[in-house]
Every structure is written in structure tokens, then in C-alpha cells.
From TrEMBL:
Keywords: Membrane, Transmembrane, Transmembrane helix
Keyword field contains Membrane: yes
Pfam annotation, one family: CoA_binding_3
Positions of the Polysaccharide biosynthesis protein CapD-like domain: 286-577
Source organism phylogeny: Bacteria, Pseudomonadati, Pseudomonadota, Alphaproteobacteria, Rhodobacterales
Gene3D superfamilies, per the entry: NAD(P)-binding Rossmann-like Domain
TM region positions: 20-39, 51-71, 83-101, 113-137
Entry similarity comment: Belongs to the polysaccharide synthase family.
Species, as recorded: Limimaricola litoreus
The protein's name: Polysaccharide biosynthesis protein
Classification via PANTHER family: POLYSACCHARIDE BIOSYNTHESIS PROTEIN EPSC-RELATED, UDP-N-ACETYLGLUCOSAMINE 4,6-DEHYDRATASE
InterPro entries, sorted: NAD(P)-bd_dom_sf, Polysac_CapD-like, Polysaccharide_Synthase-Rel, SAM-dependent_MTases_sf
Length: 636
């Protein structure tokens, strides 16, 4: 193993110089042997002294000619007939050069000696390379071999095994094949086993990897099989088809084209139609909470383009904050924007107040929230603590610090909520509306989103992951519809709507007709090059499986509470004037909520929701759903 380490650490240039040095040092050895063969005895010292100048000159000629012919660049494993022919020419040139040099110096060594020298030199050059190759192969044989199962005993699998046997680092152990006619047979010395034997073979034969040698099998089947084997803890690789090997395709493992979320909107993207707003943020100190999230990070990029004086990145996740800080710091240098990363929670009141004061924040964009419906449903206390109490902490501190504008990023799930996440966002809206009614300096407003395509936990990444694994694509109900927008649209909406705010406003984007999620699933499957498997097409690749609506999930989402909506200076942005709680009601609700959170009391928390949130009574007696498998997670 030590020798292998030395070999692998040598650079290619070093290996080439070692071969060149070997060939140069063979010159005196070959000359000595040639003279010995010619004299039938080793030459004495006086004979060698008469030729003392010939040897070093001939060694120099050897190096120059070899470099000119690039013989030292030929790899040991590639040293075959053509390379041997080059070495023969090299040896002949050396013999001729030696005879000419010797004659020019007045010597009388027979010409046959130099012919013998050329032959001996060629023999030594070829033999030395054979020895070096043997040493290298022995070194590689000392390392543990990769033990592989070949899935597929057909022609491709047999060709693969034949090729692997020439590799010193890999050892084929057995075949696996679904064809019962082949099971039990012996091919190329390897037994063919049924798929049911994989677990036993892994245990008894110490299998390291499974190679799928079935390029004609549909891609969806390969993806499913790969997932099943990986679930057993196996490393799985797929043999490409011959067309892919020729460069006419892509690797099967990376068969899906990148998904562009905007292609599934069913309408033209609107981010290009949402210009303006940069004047509000130029030269100001802006804080974005939840800066490392999907929406928060896009807000940071778009705000940065507005050239604020300072951009404060407030984020709970260390990794997300680190990545965003690295990205934005490089961009901010040219724009002369100060980037301030702050690691912490919006629930930490002393930290929030200090950050707002120390960095003289003038605008707050509040994107920090727990948004995944199933997780908040199972962890309502944590969800309400972050989404409601965190919003109250940050919004109240912003008012006390004299912040000019505070914008809450909300969701359509806050409209007559059917789940705890939506209820928490609705209570956050009520808190901000209450502060807006009482504030004389800070303008509080809200922006309500539909589903954001491509954000973490949204439907497109979920469907894409399921398609990558060969399906099925899971959907809770065939008739489910959702409003969709892209991440750039969402960020642009926040920036533009923030410039229209006068206090207590709720802004929504005109997103056109809602999208049917079943149609979206079909589009994604087909755009990936697959066919949907259903009753009309039982031979299709990927199935869309309906799992049933979960508790708290709506068939159709809404963007507005009531019909009271008015236009804004931008035709695609609507302003909702909605009813809100009184100051006393909000204070009572927050007091009850803080008590429920302090006691970690789910029942008390649901009672608060039932009392203060529209439609919240339906949530009080509903059992908490359990997520037993990923297939149960709703599509949106």
C-alpha cells in the first residue's frame, strides 16, 4: 500500500522524467553488454578508457532523441507494438550515432559492436518497461477490490463483466436478472441469481456496488429499481446506452431536464411588468428577516439592485446566512452597499431592538416564518411562537425604533384558514393591522402571496424529486387548484407594493386563473420525457397517485377576505380593505396566546385560534394528522 501511495502521488510529468532517466541510464549498461558479447568477455579497464568520451555523449544523444520522439510520454499500460517500433527506431539511431561519434574520434571499434548495442538497448528498454508495469500492477492488486453485482445477465451485462475483468480494482461477483429462464445459469463463470437473492448476496459476498446493465429498460423502471436498491443501503450506478456513450444522449442518472418553474404558470410571468419601487429603498438601511429563505434571499438580491445604504440580513439558520452573505458580499462591493449578517431569531426582543437601533434600520421586510403546513400542524406551539409572537416582537420594535416602513409577507392560506399554519399567519396579519391603526410614524402593510413556484417545500421540487425516483407522483385530490407565482414575481410584488402602502394595507397580485395541480403534475411528467401511467395508458412510465385530502387542506385557495378590494397605481396589484380586531381584542388574544405558548399547551392554543381567527372554531376539535410517509404530504 505504501508503494501504491507513492505511485499515485507522482505527477504525470514526474513519471515521464523517470522513464526518460531510466532509458538514459540504460545506455552504458547496453554498451558494456554489447562489448562483452563482441569480445566474449567483459572489457578491461584500458579498453573502457579508450571509449570514455563515447558514453556520456551517447547518453546525451539518447535523451535528445527520446524527447524529440516523445517516447517517454507513452504510458506503461499503452506501451505496445507502435511504441515498441518507436523504441526500435530510437535504438537504431543510437547505434548509428555511436558508430559515427566513435569514428569521428579516431576509434576502431568494429561496427558490429554498435549493431549489437542497438539490439541490446532495445531489449533492455522493452524489458525495463515490462518490469515497471508489473510493479505498478502488483501495487494496485494490494488494494481492496470493489466487489460488484451486475443487474442484467443479457448481452450488455456479459460485455460489462468482460470489460470489468480487465480492471485490477473491480471484481464482478454475480449476475442478477428478472428473467426466470436465466436464473440458475452460469455465464462467464458467474452465477445468475433472482432479485430476491440480493440481500443474501450483499451479506455473504460483501457487495460494494450494483451496476444496472439494462440500457433498453424504460428510464422510469431504472429509476424505480435504483431507488429500491439505494433504500437497501447499496451504491447503484447505471450503465449508459450505446447512444449515450457515443455522446448522443445524457447520463440516465441525470435524465431530467432542469425544471423552470415559470413554465407551469399558465400565464406570462409578471415580474417584468412590476417595475419601479427602487427609489423607496435607494440610500436607505433595509432589514430583511428570514433572509436566507427562498423569498428572503430573492428579496435581498432585488433590494441590492436598488442600491440601499445598508442591507441587514436577519436569519436563524447559520448555513443559510453564511451562503447568502458570501453571495451578496461579492455583489455589494461594486454597488458600495454595506452587508450586515445577523444570526438570531425574531422572537429575541433584546436582539431585535439592538439590531434596529445599531444599524439605523429604516425599512423592514418581514419574511421569517414557518410555512410548511404539515410541520406546523404537528408543532403548532413552535409555529405560533415564530409566526405570531415573532412578528409582534419585530413589528413592535420597528415602531419603537421609528422605522419608516414595515412590510409583512403573508400567504393566501391566511384567508379563512383551514390549518394551523394559515391561522398563525392570519393572527400575524391581525397584529400588524392593529399596530398600523395605532402607529403615527411607521407605515405597516402586508403582502399576501399565493403558492410560490420553486420555493423550498413547494409543489415543483416535491414533484421533481418524485419523478427523479421513478414515481409515483402523489396528489391529495384531483380537483385541487392553487394560485401560483414565481419567486421573482413574489419579491417584486413586495418591493412595489411597499411603495404604495399608507397603513394597514393588504396587497395581492392579480395572478390570473388558479392552476389545477393534477394538470401541473402531468405537465412535469411529460416535460421530463415520460408518459403518465393511467387507465387510458397502462403502459406509461409514471403514475399520479391520489392520496386524499388531508385535514386542513382546501380544494381551492382564496386571496381576499370579502369582496372589498380597490385598485392601486399598478393594474396588476390589488388592495384589500378588510375587517380587523380592535386594540382590546388583539391585546386579549396575544395575552392568551403567550400563555398557551409558555405552557406549550396545544389545546389552549387551538382555543385562542377558535376565539380570534375567522373560521378558527373548525380547527379546535380536529385531530392532529400524523405524517407516516412522504406520500402523505399534501402537494401544496
Amino acid at each position: 500500500m505504501e508503494m501504491l501511495g507513492i505511485i499515485t502521488r507522482l505527477s504525470r510529468a514526474t513519471k515521464q522524467w523517470l522513464i526518460l532517466t531510466n532509458d538514459v541510464l540504460l545506455v552504458p549498461v547496453a554498451m558494456l553488454l554489447a562489448m562483452a558479447l563482441q569480445l566474449n568477455a567483459f572489457p578491461d579497464s584500458s579498453h573502457m578508457m579508450r571509449n570514455w568520451l563515447l558514453i556520456p555523449v551517447l547518453m546525451a544523444v539518447c535523451a535528445l532523441v527520446e524527447i524529440g520522439m516523445n517516447i517517454h510520454r507513452v504510458q506503461l499500460k499503452a506501451y505496445e507494438s507502435r511504441a515498441i517500433a518507436l523504441s526500435a527506431a530510437h535504438a537504431a539511431i543510437l547505434g548509428l550515432s555511436g558508430w559515427l561519434i566513435e569514428r569521428a574520434g579516431g576509434g576502431n571499434t568494429p561496427g558490429a559492436t554498435f549493431v549489437t548495442f542497438s539490439m541490446v538497448y532495445l531489449l533492455l528498454a522493452v524489458s525495463s518497461r515490462a518490469v515497471m508495469l508489473k510493479l505498478v500492477l502488483n501495487a494496485y492488486r494490494q488494494q481492496p477490490k470493489l466487489r460488484v453485482l451486475v443487474y442484467g445477465a443479457g448481452r450488455t451485462g456479459q460485455q460489462l463483466v468482460a470489460a470489468l475483468r480487465t480492471d485490477e480494482t473491480v471484481r464482478p461477483v454475480a449476475y442478477i436478472d428478472d428473467n426466470k429462464m436465466l436464473q440458475g445459469a452460469i455465464m462467464q463463470g458467474l452465477h445468475v441469481h433472482a432479485p430476491a437473492a440480493i440481500a443474501r448476496l450483499v451479506r455473504t459476498k460483501r457487495i460494494d456496488r450494483v451496476l444496472l446493465a439494462m440500457p433498453s429498460v424504460p428510464r422510469a423502471r431504472l429509476a424505480q429499481l435504483s431507488r429500491q436498491l439505494e433504500d437497501k443501503g447499496l451504491d447503484v450506478q447505471t450503465l449508459p446506452s450505446f447512444a449515450q456513450l457515443a455522446g448522443n444522449g445524457v447520463p440516465l442518472v441525470e435524465q431530467l431536464r432542469p425544471v423552470v418553474p415559470g413554465q407551469f404558470l399558465g400565464r406570462a410571468p409578471l415580474d417584468a411588468e412590476l417595475p419601479g419601487g427602487s427609489e423607496t429603498y435607494r440610500g436607505r438601511a433595509v432589514l430583511i428577516s428570514g433572509a436566507g429563505g427562498s423569498i428572503g434571499s430573492e428579496l435581498c438580491r432585488q433590494i441590492l439592485a436598488c442600491r440601499p445604504r445598508r442591507l441587514v440580513l436577519f436569519e436563524l439558520s447559520e448555513l443559510a446566512l453564511y451562503k447568502l452573505d458570501q453571495e451578496l458580499s461579492a455583489l455589494a462591493l461594486d454597488l458600495r452597499v454595506e452587508i450586515v449578517p445577523v444570526l438570531g431569531s425574531v422572537c429575541d426582543a433584546p436582539l431585535v431592538r439592538r439590531v434596529l437601533a445599531d444599524h439605523e434600520v429604516e425599512i423592514v421586510l418581514h419574511a421569517a416564518a414557518y410555512k410548511h403546513v404539515p410541520l406546523v400542524e404537528q408543532n403548532p406551539v413552535a409555529g405560533f411562537a415564530n409566526n405570531v409572537l415573532g412578528t409582534h416582537t419585530l413589528a413592535q420594535a420597528a415602531g419603537e425604533a421609528g422605522v419608516a416602513r414595515f412590510i409583512l409577507i403573508s400567504t393566501d392560506k391566511a384567508v379563512r384558514p383551514k390549518n394551523m399554519m394559515g391561522a398563525s399567519k392570519r393572527m400575524a396579519e391581525l397584529v400588524v393591522q392593529d399596530l398600523a391603526n395605532r402607529s403615527k410614524t411607521t407605515i405597516y402593510s402586508m403582502v399576501r402571496f399565493g403558492n410560490v413556484l420553486g420555493s423550498s417545500g413547494s409543489v415543483i421540487p416535491l414533484f421533481h424529486d418524485q419523478i427523479c425516483k421513478g414515481g409515483p407522483v402523489t396528489l391529495t385530490h384531483r380537483e385541487v387548484t392553487r394560485y401560483f407565482m414565481t419567486i421573482p414575481e413574489a419579491a417584486r410584488l413586495v418591493l412595489v407594493a411597499g411603495t404604495f402602502a399608507t397603513g394597514g394595507d393588504v396587497f395581492v397580485l392579480d395572478m390570473g386563473a388558479p392552476v389545477q395541480i393534477y394538470d401541473l403534475a402531468r405537465q412535469m411528467i411529460e416535460s421530463a420525457g415520460y408518459k403518465v401511467r393511467d387507465e387510458q395508458n397502462p403502459e406509461g412510465d409514471i403514475e399520479i397517485r391520489l392520496t386524499g385530502l388531508r385535514a386542513g387542506e382546501k380544494l381551492h385557495e382564496e386571496l381576499l377576505i370579502g369582496e372589498n378590494q380597490i385598485g392601486t397605481p399598478h393594474p396588476k396589484i390589488m388592495l384589500a380593505r378588510e375587517a380587523h380586531l380592535s386594540e382590546i381584542e388583539v391585546a386579549a388574544g396575544m395575552k392568551a396566546l403567550r400563555a398557551a405558548v409558555a405552557e406549550s399547551d396545544d389545546d389552549a392554543l387551538r382555543a385562542v385560534v377558535a376565539r380570534w381567527v375567522e373560521g378558527g372554531r373548525a380547527l379546535i376539535d380536529r385531530p392532529v394528522p400524523r405524517i407516516e410517509s412522504r406520500d402523505q404530504i399534501p402537494a401544496t
